Each structure stands twice: as structure tokens, then as C-alpha cells.
Amino acid sequence: MQQHIDSYNFAGKKAIVRVDFNVPLNESFTITDDTRIRAAIPTLKKVIEGGGSLIIMSHLGRPKGVNDKFSLKHIVDHVSEKLGVPVQFAPDCQKAQAQVAALKPGEALLLENLRFYAEEEGKPRGLAEDATDEEKKAAKAAVKESQKEFVKTLASYADCYINDAFGTAHRAHGSTALIAKYFPNDKMFGYLMEGEIKAIDNVLKNAQHPFTAIIGGSKVSSKLAVLENMLEKVDNLIIGGGMGYTFVKAQGGNIGNSLHEDDLMPQALEILAKAKEKGVKIYISQDTVIADNFANDANTKTVPSSQIPEGWEGMDAGQESLAIWEKVILGSKTLLWNGPVGVFEMPNFAKGTLKIAELLAKATEAGAYTLVGGGDSVAAVTQMGYATKVSYVSTGGGAMLGTIIAGGHPLTILVALVAAPFTGLTPLIGVGFFTALTQVYMRPPRVSEMETLTDDIWQVKRWWKNRVTRGILCFLCPGIPAIIGKILAILKIYEAM
């Protein structure tokens, strides 16, 4: 049974909380942006102030085993400072039984990086590049089997489970989806998760127009689906950062040595054509700050984005581009920002990204709803002191975009996570029933979609655009394995009769 954190009695209980403390660290292991830590503090304090003992678990980076560089010991002091109580540290998340047992009400313990174990993600490690299909299959089966004990151990530490890691909630990892089944009546979402759901829902469901999306970053390939999906929702689409040069070159421009993806130029042109068809205005950098070397101290100059000479590469948006974008941003009622518009990690090429942060703060002050997600975007608004001057800062940029790509209501995904461990055990009702019911309730089909259903059902691309077919997908996809199992079970029952 799903509980609510506000009504749950933590007194005398141990609570294990999945947070997302995947924070950026510099070479001296100093946290450069603690947004994700600060965002989780209200949930953690709720347990402490409620008389409970707190066990915190998280991942950091993408280690392939134990690696001091990715140890959570580097952030213990900072977490202690923000939480207001000394936080103990368990150097092995699987061997913390004694420390957990000794925890008293009001005390906190941080477990070592979950991803030091392959069982967290459930993916085998150390396979040879020339491994056979049989070897890969055996390795996957082995890690899935050991994952059961991994999850069981984590669950044994606590009386209740809280998921407050929005950035990883969409992944079926040991500490997110799998551990929940051990707490059938004592699991809940944290305050951060609730806030993320409301923020995304506000964009997906209640967006006021003009709606502008600012999508930056280095590569088109990583956000192609995002760009395509945005065309169904926005009035304006600003494309910045390295990904913009693919669009410039696709239109015949000279981009020098700028980052681009030749194989995606046809898709870039297709996006431009679709945007024109749908009446969506696309804004790509008109001028670019270029450099003769990928370094902060390189020689620079500003040129039109389509006239970058050989030996030079685009590093940041120019003043002319920013002036155009300023009018668009300040004229919008809803704004979504994900990804930098320049090489943000270099101070000399961070001006464009910082300008976007400033403009979003101004738009918010003027009454617009602004949602910021993505590591560098969050870092920009934080560095300039604008984190509290935008409507919402998402801790999970990838998860935020993934939710938007899917087109389903955020609650649909969360319902699937909660329902899956239980519905798989029932003979009559599958998880798809609950996810589809949630989807249709939150996104009722339109009359026009019923009229086009006959045509849409025969076109794969239209399945994600029609709310009727999308509801069908929500019903079928989560429960396919369970459906197969139930069919087999029915056949066995029939044979027995």
C-alpha cells in the first residue's frame, strides 16, 4: 500500500531513502553544484524530525567497480552540514548490517555508492569483447540472480522505503523498482519526487502559450526524439550549443571544425520541415563566438554561424543570437530549458548559457512558468543565484525529457513502478490495467482522436500521438511478460482438468 510521507509515523523506525546524490565534483573532490543534495534535504529531515533513523543510499557517476574517484565518502561532510546532523558512512553498501543495527532515532547513515556493485543496474561487467551470445546470456542470468540477494540485503536494513530520486526513477534498478516489493505497506515518495511530478505535469498539461523550449547540448543524436516531440507542444524552439551546427551545415552553411553529426543532417532538415508545417518557429544561432582551439585561452572572434572558417570551431552563441532569443523568451508564458548553448565549462564561452539563465529569471518575474533541467542548465541558474528565481529546477534532466518524450502523464510511470510488484502475483489484473486507467484518467481521449482512430491504428508513428492508442500502449507494454505467464498458467490448469 502506497503511503504518504506527511502522514507516515517514522517514530522508532528505520527508513531507507533512495536519493540522487550524483553531484559534480572537481579534481579536489569538492562539490561544484549541490542542487540535488539540497533538494532531498526536506525528505531526509522529515524522517529525522519524525523520530526515525535514516539510511541514505545513492549512486555517483558510472563506475565499473570500486573506484575511489566515485566514492560517496567525498560528500559526507557536505551532507552532514545540509542535514544538520552528523552523517555516518558505511564503506560497503552490502556490509552495513552492524552500523544499521546501531543507529538510534535521529541518526543518519550514508551507504557507499550503489553502482560499485553490478547488481544495482543488473548488467554484467567484465565480459570480453569477443564474448559469445551464450556467454553474454549466462553472465546476464548470473547477475540477475545475484541481484536478488543485493536487493534483499538493502531492504533488510529498514522498516520503510522512500523513493526521492527522480533522476533515476525511470530505471528499473535494484534500489528503485526492485526494492519496493519488500515494503508492500510501507513505501512512499519523497517531497522532491512529488515536486517533480507537479512541475512536469504543469508543463505537459497546463502549459500557457506562447510555449518556448530551449534545447542545447553537444549532440543532436542525444536529443533528436526530444526535438521531434517538442514540435507537438511548443510554439517556439530555440536550438543552441553544439547540436545547432548540424542544422547549420544541413542548410548549406560552412561550420569549420565545429561539432556536428553528418549522418543526422537529413533528420535535421526533416525537423525544420515539420516545424514549418506545424507553424513552430525555430531559432538557431545567427552568429557564433568561434575559437582556433578548444581551450579557454584560445583566440576568438564572432562570425555568422554559416561562415565559420576552417580551423575554427563554434564555442558560444553570439550577441545577435542572444538578442533575438531574448525577445522570444521574454514574450513567452511557458519555458522549458535543457542543455547549455555554449561550452559552459570554460568561463570565456559561458556567457550565452549564463544569459539564458538571466532571461529565464526575468521571464519568471514577469509571470511566465519556467522549468529548468539538465546538469549544465541547473549549474548556470545556480551559479548566478537564479535557482530560486525560476519556477522549478529539475534534479533529473534526462528523466524530465524522457517523461516528455513518452507523452504519457508522469503519474502513469510512477503507478507502473508501484503496481508492478503486486499485480504480477494476481491471476486476473495486470499492471497494464492500472497504468492504462491512470493514463486515460489524466489524459482523456479527444473526440477528434476517436474520429481518426481507424487511420491512426495502422500507422506506428501515430500510436504515440493519439490518446486512445497511447492508452492501449500503457495497457499492453508493462504487462506483456505477465500476460504470457498467465496464458501459460491457464493452459496448465486446463491440462490438469
Care to describe what's here?
With 497 residues, the protein is of the alpha/beta class. It has three domains: 14-196, Rossmann fold (3-Layer(aba) Sandwich); 207-405, Rossmann fold, CATH 3.40.50; 408-496, no CATH class. Helix content is 43%, strand content 14%. It contains 20 helices and 17 strands. Strands 3-4-2-1-5-6 form a six-stranded parallel beta sheet. Strands 10-8-7-15-16-17 form a six-stranded parallel beta sheet, sandwiched between helices. The longest helix has 24 residues, at 133-156. Residues 424-428 have low confidence and may be disordered.
The CATH topology of the largest domain is given as Rossmann fold
Largest sheet: 6 strands, parallel
Uncertain ranges: 424-428
Look at the structure and name the CATH superfamily of the largest domain.
Phosphoglycerate kinase, N-terminal domain
Helix content: 40-55%
Largest sheet, spatial ordering of strands: 3-4-2-1-5-6
Number of helices: 20
CATH class of the largest domain: Alpha Beta
What is the CATH architecture descriptor of the largest domain? 3-Layer(aba) Sandwich
How many separate domains make up the residues?
3
Helix/strand class: alpha/beta
C-alpha Rg (nearest Å): 24 Å
- Which word captures the global form? globular
Quote the beta fraction.
Answer: 5-15%
Please give the number of β-strands.
17
The end-to-end distance, rounded to whole angstroms, is: 35 Å
What value does the average pLDDT take?
82
